[in-house]
């Protein structure tokens, strides 16, 4: 068997016999955690964007006069 064929066979065996797949409940729980974290990070970035926009508008207003 070639090196590639051997690699594919070993990867397949590892996938079937050594990988521990999460249960449906664990999968749902971690998905909700990831979505919550994503929402939090999105709100933080939005807040930083809004704050920097207001600061720059203020500076342009002061320096432009």
From TrEMBL:
Gene3D superfamilies listed in its UniProt record: Preprotein translocase secy subunit (1.20.5.1030)
This protein's UniProt keywords: Cell membrane, Membrane, Protein transport, Translocation, Transmembrane, Transmembrane helix, Transport
Principal location: membrane
InterPro entries in UniProt: SecE_bac, SecE_sf, Translocase_SecE/Sec61-g
Topological category with respect to the lipid bilayer: Single-pass membrane protein
Record's subcellular location: Cell membrane; Membrane
Segments crossing the lipid bilayer: 31-51
Domain of life, per lineage: Bacteria
The protein's assembly and partners: Component of the Sec protein translocase complex. Heterotrimer consisting of SecY, SecE and SecG subunits. The heterotrimers can form oligomers, although 1 heterotrimer is thought to be able to translocate proteins. Interacts with the ribosome. Interacts with SecDF, and other proteins may be involved. Interacts with SecA.
Family statement: Belongs to the SecE/SEC61-gamma family.
Reported function: Essential subunit of the Sec protein translocation channel SecYEG. Clamps together the 2 halves of SecY. May contact the channel plug during translocation.
Name of the protein: Protein translocase subunit SecE
Organism for this UniProt entry: Nemorincola caseinilytica
Gene label: secE
């Amino acid at each position: 068997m070639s090196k590639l064929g051997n690699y594919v066979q070993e990867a397949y065996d590892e996938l079937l016999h050594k990988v521990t797949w999460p249960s449906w409940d664990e999968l749902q729980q971690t998905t909700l955690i990831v979505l919550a974290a994503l929402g939090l990070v999105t709100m933080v970035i939005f807040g930083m964007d809004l704050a920097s926009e207001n600061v720059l508008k203020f500076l342009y207003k002061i320096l432009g006069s």
